[in-house]
């Protein structure tokens, strides 16, 4: 829970392993449940299949020391400066961290053990044992934190939520999902506790001792709540106030297809497919400029125009997967009237773009992927590399627009409040309350699949 400020370094292979949001099923995207890890004779750590040991049971290889500090300060350093910073932290680490019988032991003081490597989407397994009045946690992507603390009244922190137990995202805003654990799952002092954490984008699920305590909640960016959690960052083992022991620390990096499946499965009730994967039944506009290939909808190279659903929508949520080729450009037509340029005649064109391609290095911020084109800029850095499938959810409610890309909210705005436009070009359609959903092709073979929409009201 507590956050301090400074950086340092030690060395042990870093990783973080995240898990799903309900008792683990036997099949499906949440079925990444491996046999329990084992710790053999001293120095022999055996990770579950598909996992990597972050702690080798012998020393601190792969770790450095750091306090609670905005990781962007470390990322801004040169490789040489970063190496020196990490090395300098080892002096403090040696004073407060040790290895005993294959366990990591901290005396309740000093810098936090921090992975040298940065991690994005992960599944993390870790066991810990602590003492009365201790306070600790697991930082994800250099950000506090999955909370660990004394849940008893004698611990002295019931006034700030300790009675609810460990495992919550304690640094989320008051009342935000995930801040408080769903159940009290801590074991008595002297017993080992097990954490399983699944993180896809900012979507975070935590099991404590096999009980679901955080269910697919957004982990807020403690360093700047106006932007999403960083795409990647180190895993940190926080400690202060009392001895804590750690063992069986294993991580698995979640590949994009699995991450997309996890995001698609959660909260899928009420969605209806609007593309059948075979033809353009239910679609209007210049459909001859598009094609269906292997279950995907694609703009033909050199062609374009806006195709759209024959059904109109008012307030709705759309979910789909998007694959952008190098330098690819397209757009989502929201509340499109069926004619004209959707960026201006519709509520907006939600940009679809290979944002990091050198061809687009000098665009206006309001022209990159996920942006309400020409009106409001989306956060960058959350799009997968060209050629990989992205999972995107778009929520249109009244004049508000929210875009969640690969598990991170990159845009959350109210178009009724926009008064400044790119090139001073008016957007007369931005206040539309109904219209069609579609794709605004710009000559590039951008692909779409699993296109589903849920109405948020009766709709036309």
Strand element count: 28
- Full CATH superfamily name of the largest domain: Exo-inulinase, domain 1
The radius of gyration computed from the alpha-carbon positions, rounded to a whole number of angstroms, is 24 Å
Mean pLDDT, as a whole number?
A: 91
Task: Quickly list its features.
460 residues, mainly beta, Jelly Rolls, eight-stranded antiparallel β-sheet, 4 helices, 28 strands, disordered N terminus
Short characterization:
The protein has 460 residues and is mostly beta strands. It has helices spanning 71-75, 79-96, 256-265, 342-345, and strands spanning 38-39, 45-46, 52-53, 63-66, 97-100, 103-106, 112-115, 122-130, 135-140, 143-149, 193-200, 203-208, 211-218, 236-240, 244-253, 272-273, 283-284, 290-293, 296-299, 304-313, 316-323, 329-336, 348-353, 389-397, 400-405, 408-414, 435-442, 447-455. Helices cover 8% and strands 36% of the residues.
Structure description:
By secondary structure, the protein is mainly beta. The chain has two domains: 38-260, Jelly Rolls, CATH 2.60.120; 267-455, Jelly Rolls (Sandwich). It contains four helices and 28 strands. Strands 3, 5, 6, 8, 11, 12, 13 and 15 form an eight-stranded antiparallel β-sheet that branches. Strands 16, 18, 19, 21, 24, 25, 26 and 28 form an eight-stranded antiparallel β-sheet that branches. It starts with 37 loop residues before the first strand and ends in a 5-residue tail after the last strand. Mean pLDDT is 91; it is low at 1-43.
């Amino acid at each position: 829970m507590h956050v301090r400020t400074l950086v340092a370094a030690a060395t042990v292979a870093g990783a973080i392993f995240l898990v799903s949001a309900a008792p683990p099923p036997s099949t499906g995207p949440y079925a990444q449940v491996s046999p329990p890890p084992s710790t053999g004779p001293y120095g022999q750590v055996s990770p579950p299949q598909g996992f990597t040991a972050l702690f080798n049971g012998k020393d601190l290889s792969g770790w450095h020391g750091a306090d609670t500090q905005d990781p962007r300060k470390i990322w801004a350093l040169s490789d040489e400066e970063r190496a020196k910073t990490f090395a300098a932290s080892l002096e403090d680490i040696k004073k407060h961290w040790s290895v005993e019988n294959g366990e990591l032991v901290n005396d309740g003081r000093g810098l936090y053990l921090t992975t040298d490597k940065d991690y994005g989407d992960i599944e993390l397994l870790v066991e810990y044992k602590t003492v009365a009045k201790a306070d600790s946690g697991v930082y994800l992507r250099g950000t506090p934190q999955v909370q660990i603390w004394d849940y008893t009244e004698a611990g002295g922190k019931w006034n700030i939520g300790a009675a609810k137990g460990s495992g919550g995202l304690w640094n989320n805003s008051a009342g935000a999902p995930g801040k408080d654990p769903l159940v009290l799952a801590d074991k008595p002092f002297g017993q080992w506790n097990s954490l399983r954490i699944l993180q896809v984008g900012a979507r975070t699920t935590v099991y404590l001792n096999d009980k679901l305590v955080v269910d697919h909640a957004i982990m807020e960016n403690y360093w700047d709540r106006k932007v999403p959690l960083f795409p990647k960052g180190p895993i940190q083992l926080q400690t202060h106030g009392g001895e804590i022991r750690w063992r069986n620390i294993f991580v698995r990096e979640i590949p994009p297809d699995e991450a997309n499946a996890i995001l698609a499965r959660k909260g899928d009730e009420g969605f209806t497919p609007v593309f059948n994967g075979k033809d353009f039944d239910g679609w209007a506009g210049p459909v001859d400029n598009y094609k269906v290939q292997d279950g995907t909808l694609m703009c033909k190279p050199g062609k374009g125009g806006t195709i759209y659903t024959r059904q109109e929508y008012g307030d709705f949520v759309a979910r789909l997967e998007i694959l952008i080729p190098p330098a690819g450009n397209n757009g989502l037509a929201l509340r499109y009237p069926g004619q004209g340029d959707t960026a201006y005649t519709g509520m907006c064109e939600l940009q679809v773009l290979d944002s990091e391609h050198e061809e687009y290095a000098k665009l206006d911020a309001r022209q990159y992927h996920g942006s309400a084109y020409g009106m409001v800029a989306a956060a960058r850095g959350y799009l997968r590399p060209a050629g990989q499938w992205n999972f995107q959810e778009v929520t249109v409610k009244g004049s508000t627009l929210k875009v969640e890309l690969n598990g991170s909210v990159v845009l959350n705005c109210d178009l009724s409040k926009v008064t400044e436009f790119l090139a001073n070009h008016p957007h007369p359609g931005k206040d539309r309350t109904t219209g069609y959903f579609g794709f605004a092709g710009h000559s590039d073979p951008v692909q779409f699949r699993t296109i589903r929409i849920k109405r948020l009201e009766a709709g036309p």
